[in-house]
Amino acid sequence: MIANVELQRKRVGLTQMELSDRVGISRRALSSIEKSVAIPSVDIALKIAAALNTTVEQLFVSEMPPLPLTTVAHEHEVSPNNKWANFTFIDLFAGIGGIRLGFESVGGKCVFSSEFDEDACKTYEANFGEHPAGDITKIDTSEIPDFDILLGGFPCQAFSIIGKKEGFANETCGTLFFDIERILREKRPPAFMLENVRNLVAHDNGKTFKIIREHLEALGYHIHAKVLNALDYGVPQKRERIIIVGFLKDIPFDFPLPIKKSERLKLSDILEPQVDAKYYVKDTIRLSRLERLRDKDYPRPYISHENMAGAVTPHPYSSALRAGASANYILINDERRPTEREMLRIQGFPDTFKIVVPYGKVKKQCGNSVAVPVIKAVANQMLKALREYDY
Question: How far apart are alpha carbons 89 and 217 in whole angstroms?
Fold first, then answer.
């Protein structure tokens, strides 16, 4: 049976939601009928025909067997014919692949990656079996394969609270957003997701984010943006980042809700039981930190953070990992630095993730990366929206 429902619906100027409301079925069920994935019962077919002021014969090419509506896919099932059952993405400003991990977890396939930093490329290649292309400003869009979703944690130093906050005046990284714009304009993927520091929203009294949003909307994308905290999605790290999601179609989208506190990893869950002596700080550093510790009776384990004023504050979680922070920026129990594996765990990377560069470079790479569980949660919401509404 070949359905002409979509053609007839558009002929009378009804949306899927309007027609599904008139017929008394879900929008997803109607979509399955329009794509000939599911066969409606005679009763539903007659209601559709009446709503469209036509006949059942005009709606369906061949005779319909009187199957019940239960043959329509359930509300949260994904039809094997759904074009979002498999999807591709590109990984720009890829770092060590945190965003890639998030979107692979929901079935995506990476078809292109780009990263400027060669040390990050070494880690990426060790874990994903491919060496990312280099400087995105030197890559012609024609060299990038077609894809469904653009992903990019574009450099944030130009917008960060810690940095100089130069924004687009910073020619080396602030303007890299416009390479994202260039690729979106020429490739026109159905969706994208961008990640940046929280301060992007407030930078230059909101003008920077306003410019970014206006440029994305001028390309025809419908924009959703929200600051999410990694603490709310299962890792012991207070890391607030803005997530910008865009769709070519105006489809409903909700950012993921925080997970239950009982399901979140505690600091004790990610600490290694046996740690080499090289991670422990000198006694002079340890005593200095303990002397300045705001709460000297704070329960262990904790991670203390030394701010720019020299104050030392303990927490049951890490402050945001930073690429350029001093070696003793955060200390566990004011005794030692976190190990390479612990830093990766703080960002939500699996223990199977390979470490192939020295400590200082792992520290930088983790500071530049993303909290993987946050990206997984956003990816899941994006795919849910695309599967339900992008017909």
Answer: 21
Nearest CA to 193 out of 226, 218, 232 is that of 226
Q: What is the pLDDT of residues 326-349, one digit of tens each?
A: 888 899 999 999 999 999 999 999
SS3 state at 65:
coil
Distance between CA atoms of 377 and 389, rounded to whole angstroms? 18
Distance between CA atoms of residues 120 and 347, nearest Å? 15
Instruction: Decide if 80 is inside a domain.
Output: no
76 in any annotated domain = no
Pairing type for strands 330-332 and 303-306 reads antiparallel
Structure tokens at 89: 């993405």
pTM score: 0.76
β-pair partners for 207? none
Inter-residue contact 391 to 31 (CB < 8 Å): yes
pLDDT of residue 61: 57
Tally of domains in the chain = 3
Residues 254 and 281 in one domain: no
**Residue carrying the six token digits 């079996």:** 129
Q: Residue 123 class from Cβ within 10 Å (0-12 exposed, 13-18 middle, 19+ buried)?
A: buried
Strand extents, DSSP E, the chain: 87-92, 108-113, 149-152, 191-197, 222-229, 237-238, 240-247, 303-306, 312-315, 318-319, 330-332
Claim to verify: residue 273 and residue 256 sit in the same structural domain: no
Burial class (CB in 10 A: 0-12, 13-18, 19+), 341: middle
374: domain CATH number is: 3.40.50.150
User: What is the set of active-site residues?
Assistant: 156
Tell me: do 323 and 222 sit in the same domain.
Answer: no
Host domain of residue 41: 5-71
